[in-house]
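Short-chain dehydrogenase/reductase SDR (Penicillium concentricum), 261 aa
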Amino acid sequence: MAFPYKHFLVIGATAGIGKALATRLIESGAKVTAVGRRQDRLDEFVQTFGAAHAKGERFDIGELAKIPDFVTKVMKESPDIDSIVFNAGVQSPYDLTDLDKFDLTAFHLEVKINFSSFISLTHALLPYLQRNPNPTSFIFTGSNLAIVPAATLPAYSASKAALNVFTLCLREQLRHSNTKVVEISPPPVQTELHDYMGEDAGRQLGMPLDAFTQQVYQGLAEGKDQIVIGSIGPVDTFNGIVDTRRTAFESLSKMMRGGKP
């Protein structure tokens, strides 16, 4: 199945899943505008694929107040952008019982980067996608930890759980529009995300990045709106939780709109 999207704006495209997915999308024939904080990596990305296929935009999504102006600039320069891919994220362990070492500021920052920034970007970008007469999409990279949280990663798990709920609600509210909402739910993947464990150990944790990226791409190409890869615990049990929860959500949504389509 061919993608209906031609120009992807990939948030967090300078490392890890974001970079790998941006690369795969270009290889499929799409154009990618890569967003990240590190100019040298953006320059390398553009040089690798050429200006006809890649563009770089330096921006720190943690600066929430600057997001509206950033989106206006990007969409004015590239009005053909029709799909937004959200990948940026940070992960750190926290011991909530050790009050002397528990960094509350860092905890809030992690939630802001992993969740609040995505909401602000969605709010700013949605009007542009809705004005586009062609198919458009939001693609969010969540986590299996949104369903089964890790006790040592409360900020990350909570932010991904919040993002999961947001994608469900956004998809429901956009059900009659031309904007599709896709959620990718990864297992641990071998990326820089786990560098707090030590670079060698962290980057060997989880699924190989190439294998993960190929499964994501296949799910996107098949038109899925929920791409769950891997599981926490037995696969059937985990997927059963995901499916049952979504069914319950859709039933509640239908009831709240009075049974209307």
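The helical segments are 16-27, 39-49, 67-77, 104-131, 154-173, 199-202, 209-221, 235-256. The chain has a mean pLDDT of 94. ok done for today
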